[in-house]
Every structure is written in C-alpha cells, then in structure tokens.
C-alpha cells in the first residue's frame, strides 16, 4: 500500500472516489492497487494478473468493501507466478471506508495492521493498528519484516511491513546486475534512465531506500542525481569516472545544489570489484553498511 498512499490520500482529501484492492491469501505483501472513476489505476498487484476481476468489483462503486474469492486460471498463473488452481482472496474497499489514520502511517513507511471486519462477503469496517499497538503474531511479523494475514473473530487482518526500494537511474549490464542483486536481498528494484521517471520514482522514497545514478550523459544523470538529493533516500550512490563526477557536480552547482555530502561516489565498497555482478555486490554491501553501521 505504500506506493499508492500519496495518490489515494490525495483522492480522499479531494473527495474523489478510489477503491483500494489488496491480496490476503495465499500471501500478503505491501502491494496494492487503486481504481479511480473513468478507469484510472494506481499501483500494481500480482503483475496485473487479476486487474480485470478487481476492476469489475470496483466499477460497482459500492458504499462498502467486498471480500473476493477466486481460483487462479492458467493465464493468471503465467502472469502472477501463482500456481493454477490456487485459491486467492482479495479485499476491494472504498478508500473513504479505511481508517484515515492509515494514510499518514503509510506515507511515513510505517508497519501497520489493517483489519477488515466481514459480514459474509461485505466489509463492514476497516480499522488499523499502528506498530506500537500490535501484539502476538502481528508484532512478531513486523519484527521479522514480514507480511501475513491473521484470521480471527475480528475478520481478516493484513500485517503490512515496508520493503526497501532501490531506484537505479540508468541502464545497461550494471543496472541489470543491481536489480538482480536487489531482488536476491528482497528489495524492490526499479530501473529507468529517464529523468522524469526517476523523479517520480524517488519522490516517495524513505531513509530505508536507495538510489544509484549512472550514465554517460551529464545532463540526464545530473538531473537524476538532483532528484535523488531532493528525496529522503537513505543512500545515494553515483557511478562514473572522476571526470564525470566533477561534471555532475559542476552541473548541479550551476543550479545552486552544492551539498553533495550524501552522495557516495564512486558508489560501492572498494573490494576490487570487476564486472557488473561484482560491482553490484559492492554497491549492495555499501547500501547495507550505510543502513546498519553508525
């Protein structure tokens, strides 16, 4: 839900309808999808495999949410990676029905538990429990950085914990190796060389997230670096020769950006890395060190 929190919160403030969908079985993640009138979609869920199913529910524009049970088809299995025949369950809820305290917590990338009370397939209320107020299995899941669903007499509770994100501003073998390394570590990776897209990707980053900037075009890579500096990312790395690093610094200085103390350049620990895979390991190690070491 973290990726859609900013947009959905804006919809709630403006009185624009948004229906939020998330999976509660067989797995729970921090992914969610929001539908707006006219066919708009925000976020993503299960690689889009169930978008049509969930959109049909959202299109009914009901005043309360619904619990949706479904069995994965062969095509949905290919797209989502969930085995064919697996029972899946979703909740599709109008944003205005969700406890409004959820949005500030999600915007701050806080872990929380979202409880949907059910009357048959109808979602009667959606309440939230902040991390400090959780207990039992919910607190254990948050402590372990896991997402899970808990079913009890309250209904279905989805425990949602944030996942670290890595934005790679660039393309090529090193960018691909970084994305692969991020996936091995359980991070979410996004790779894009376009400054406008990078600006959008970095806008909602938090101190648990990272940005790595690369590329041979001074203006494009410097624009991406400026977007990274404008974000709350906990780690910013820049790849490139000393001459490229200086050219970026000069480009930024002309735009009154002179404090580059947050930038690790060249990115990565000095381990004598050679080749894209080893460079990716050195950068991932530096990100972990920056996050955990004083």
Q: What's this, in brief?
A:
By secondary structure, the chain is of the alpha/beta class. The chain has 10 helices and 14 strands.
Description:
The protein is α/β, with parallel strands linked by helices and 294 residues long. It has two domains: 2-160, no CATH class; 165-292, Rossmann fold. 35% of the residues lie in helices and 27% in strands. It is built from ten helices and 14 strands. The chain has helices at 5-14, 51-59, 74-80, 102-107, 136-143, 173-184, 195-202, 218-230, 242-253, 276-292, and strands spanning 19-25, 32-36, 40-44, 65-71, 87-94, 112-119, 122-130, 148-152, 155-160, 165-169, 188-191, 210-213, 235-238, 263-264. Strand 1 (19-25) and strand 2 (32-36) form a beta hairpin. Helix 8 packs across helix 9. The longest helix has 17 residues, at 276-292. The two termini are 30 Å apart.
Share of residues in strands = 25-35%
Helix content: 25-40%
Instruction: Please count the helical segments.
Output: 10
Model regions low in confidence, pLDDT < 50 over at least 5 residues: none
Strand order of the largest sheet: 3-2-1-5-4-7-6-9-8
Shape: elongated
């Amino acid at each position: 839900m973290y990726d859609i929190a900013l947009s959905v919160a804006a919809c709630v403030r403006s009185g624009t309808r948004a229906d939020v969908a998330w999976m509660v079985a067989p797995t729970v993640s921090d992914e969610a999808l929001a539908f707006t009138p006219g066919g708009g979609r925000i976020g993503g869920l299960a690689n889009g495999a169930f978008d049509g199913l969930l959109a049909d529910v959202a299109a009914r524009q009901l005043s309360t949410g619904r619990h949706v049970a479904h069995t994965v088809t062969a095509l949905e299995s290919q797209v989502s990676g969930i085995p064919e025949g697996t029972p899946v369950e979703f909740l599709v809820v109008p944003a205005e029905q969700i406890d409004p305290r959820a949005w500030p917590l999600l915007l701050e990338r806080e872990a929380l538990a979202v409880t949907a009370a059910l009357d048959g397939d109808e979602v009667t209320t959606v309440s939230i429990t902040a991390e400090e107020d959780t207990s039992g299995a919910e607190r254990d899941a948050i402590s372990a950085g896991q997402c899970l669903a808990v079913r009890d007499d309250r209904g279905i509770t989805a425990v949602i914990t944030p996942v670290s994100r890595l934005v790679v501003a660039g393309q090529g073998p090193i960018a691909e190796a970084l994305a692969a390394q991020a996936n091995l570590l359980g991070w979410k990776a996004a790779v894009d060389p376009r400054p406008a897209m990078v600006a959008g990707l970095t806008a909602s980053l938090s101190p648990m997230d990272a940005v790595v900037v690369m590329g041979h075009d001074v203006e494009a890579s410097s624009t991406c670096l400026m977007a990274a500096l404008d974000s709350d990312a906990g780690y910013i790395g820049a790849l490139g020769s000393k001459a490229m690093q200086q050219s970026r610094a000069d480009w930024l200085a002309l735009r009154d950006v002179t404090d580059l103390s947050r930038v690790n350049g060249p990115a990565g620990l000095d381990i004598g890395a050679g080749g894209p895979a080893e460079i990716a390991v050195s950068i991932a190690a530096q990100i972990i060190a920056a996050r955990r070491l004083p």
